[in-house]
């Protein structure tokens, strides 16, 4: 009986041993990229011209937390000029922003952002324009077209959770559409 138990134990042990050339039982993990290889430089840009001129430059620096998740900080600068029957108005908007992104598939992602923009807005209390800070939480997603080892071109559609019609900086619509890139 003891001999039978030893034989069964030996046979189970032999089946669990690593066979050279068989990577299915390998316990070695791929090495994690160094911290500098996880940095993601990039940003957004936008422009439209006509009666409403809009130029946006928004550099970002991100960090790849996992293969699917990244987060980062950036700065947003927007120049806009509006020409209408009452005249011409121009202004600059600027401020910091942060983002978090999760890749759902190799091309689709979910994204959240928070912008804190300084905007010249009409103040009815003084009957003139004055600079104010606006908190803008944005939520949405997008599509990434990869290029190179780590880079990509992105198209993002976000929803302004603090949207109020006519209130800057995105008073015309609760949707914010962006194109961007990363290296």
Topology:
Elements (H helix, E strand, L loop, with lengths): L1 H14 L23 E10 L3 E13 L4 E16 L2 E17 L4 E16 L4 E20 L3 E10 L14 E8 L1
Antiparallel strand pairs: 1-2, 1-8, 2-3, 3-4, 4-5, 5-6, 6-7, 7-8
Account of the protein in words:
With 183 residues, the protein is mainly beta. It is built from 1 helix and 8 strands. The protein has one helix at 2-15, and strands spanning 39-48, 52-64, 69-84, 87-103, 108-123, 128-147, 151-160, 175-182. A hairpin with a 4-residue loop joins strand 5 (108-123) and strand 6. It is elongated.
Characteristic key phrases:
single chain, 183 residues, mainly beta, Porin, 8% helix
Average pLDDT level: 82
Kindly report how far apart the N and C termini lie: 67 Å
Compute the number of structural domains: 1
Q: What is the N-to-C succession of helices and strands?
A: HEEEEEEEE
Helix count, DSSP H or I runs of 4 or more residues: 1
**Got a strand count?**
8
Structural class: mainly beta
Under CATH, the topology is which?
Porin
Short summary of the structure?
With 183 residues, the chain is mainly beta. The chain contains 1 helix and 8 strands; from the N terminus they run αββββββββ.
């Amino acid at each position: 009986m003891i001999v039978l138990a030893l034989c069964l134990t030996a046979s189970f042990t032999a089946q669990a041993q690593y066979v050279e050339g068989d990577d299915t039982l390998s316990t070695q993990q791929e090495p994690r990229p160094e911290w500098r290889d996880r940095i993601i430089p990039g940003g957004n840009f936008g422009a439209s011209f006509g009666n409403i001129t809009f130029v946006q430059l928004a550099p970002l620096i991100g960090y790849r937390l996992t293969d699917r998740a990244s987060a980062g900080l950036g700065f947003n600068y927007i120049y806009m000029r509006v020409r209408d029957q009452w005249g011409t108005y121009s202004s600059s908007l600027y401020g910091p922003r942060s983002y978090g992104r999760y890749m759902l598939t190799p091309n689709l992602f979910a994204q959240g952002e928070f912008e804190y923009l300084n905007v010249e807005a009409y103040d009815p209390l003084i009957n003139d324009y004055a600079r104010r800070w606006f908190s803008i939480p944005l939520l949405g997603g997008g599509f990434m077209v990869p290029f190179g080892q780590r880079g990509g071109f992105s198209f993002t559609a976000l929803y302004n959770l603090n949207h109020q019609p006519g209130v800057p900086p995105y008073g015309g619509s609760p949707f914010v559409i962006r194109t961007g890139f990363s290296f």
